[in-house]
UniProtKB/TrEMBL annotation:
Belongs to the TRAPP small subunits family. Sedlin subfamily. The keyword Transmembrane does not apply. It comes from Rynchops niger. Its main location: cytoplasm. One of its GO terms (cellular component) is perinuclear region of cytoplasm. SUPFAM superfamilies: SNARE-like (SSF64356). This is Trafficking protein particle complex subunit 2-like protein. The gene is Trappc2l. It holds the Pfam family Sedlin_N.
Amino acid sequence: MAVCIAVIAKENYPLYIRSIPTENELKFHYTVHTSLDVVDEKISAMGKALVDQRELYLGLLYPTEDYKVYGYVTNSKVKFVMVVDSSNTALRDNEIRSMFRKLHNSYTDIMCNPFYNPGDRIHSRAFDNMVNSMMMQVC
C-alpha cells in the first residue's frame, strides 16, 4: 500500500505531502527528502535521453527494510515521490507507473487553474480526493 505521496517543486521544497499513518509523518518527510538526491542522480545520468525518450518515470529509487521509494519527474522538473509498503508484493511496476500518470494528470489540472500561483503549496480538494483514492486503491 502507498503510505506517502509527495509533490516536490523544481527548487526541492514540498508543494504537497500526504501520508496515511500520521504519527510517522516526520519519518516520511525525511524519506522523501533523502530520495531527492537519488532523483537528481538519475536525472543527471539520463541527461539528454530523458528528453528524447519522454520517459518521466524514474522507477525504484531505493528500498528500505519497510518501504520502497519510487520517483517520477515532469518536464518542468517537478518531482513526484511515492513511498510504498514493502510487504505489498501484489503491486507491480506498471501499476506504479499508471498511478504516477494519474497523479501527473491531476497536477496538470491544478496548474491549469487560473487562480493557482505556480510554486504555492497545493490546496485542492479534488487533488486530495485523488491522492486518497490512490492510497485506498492500493490498500
